[in-house]
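B., you asked whether I could sanity-check this one before it goes into the benchmark set. Here's the sequence:
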Amino acid sequence: MKRLAFYTGIALILTACGLGENKHKDPPKGGLNVFSIEQDKQLGKQVAAEIEGNTAEYPILDSAKNVKAYKYIYGIRDKILNTGKVKYKDEFKWQVRIVDNDEVLNAFCTPGGYIYFYTGIIKYLDNEAQLAGVMGHEMGHADLRHSTRQMTKIYGIQILAAAALGDQQALAQITTGLIGLQFSRSHETEADRMSVEYLCPTSWPADGGAGFFEKIQAGGGGGTPEFLSTHPSPANRIENYHKWAAENNCGGKDDGEMTFKEFQKLF
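And here's what the prediction gave me:
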């Protein structure tokens, strides 16, 4: 009965959006999303459970045994949330987990605000502002609900609905898809811009996220990672970060390099 009600709800949303007749000429920012905030939260919770249960592929550091590391990274998250710029600050979980894998240069955020940082990218970055810039970008994807928009296109309504209801096969498929999810260029640009907006009221340089791409462009770490291959070019993203920070008169100067170096030593 619960499953029937869920699919009935989806059908009603599709009808309301005029999707079947292609009446929606001007989709909302980020693209059409037929899922509710509650469904984003439910899907994120299910995917987080799937990730944490797969310790071989996702060796997550125990927060009880890595108190200093988690206190530091949660401090970055809290500073972003406290700017008042995060739309779903109170609705989403905004849980942070550190994945112990130095070979992976990546971070991602699932629907509902479950944030994952690999130790590979933590060790690659130079300062706290860069880490905050990357975190702001990932939080921007969740805040703009890009994942459920993009996965609606890729997987279709039925698989997403099944995953939200706990179907293990669908969950495994969605989890795998989320890790390597290729967002559209417009989604990446929107998330970059949100990173600048989030950091602008802070003491960090609002264009901190540009530092990651400046390192990539300079060839640090062996060239462009595969997950960036279809994204906007690093050069364009660097230019955008600096331009948006200047346009908004963002004045942060503290890149937090010293405290960040101490954080990196914890791994």
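One thing to flag: The beta strands are 95-99, 107-110, 114-118. Otherwise nothing jumped out at me.
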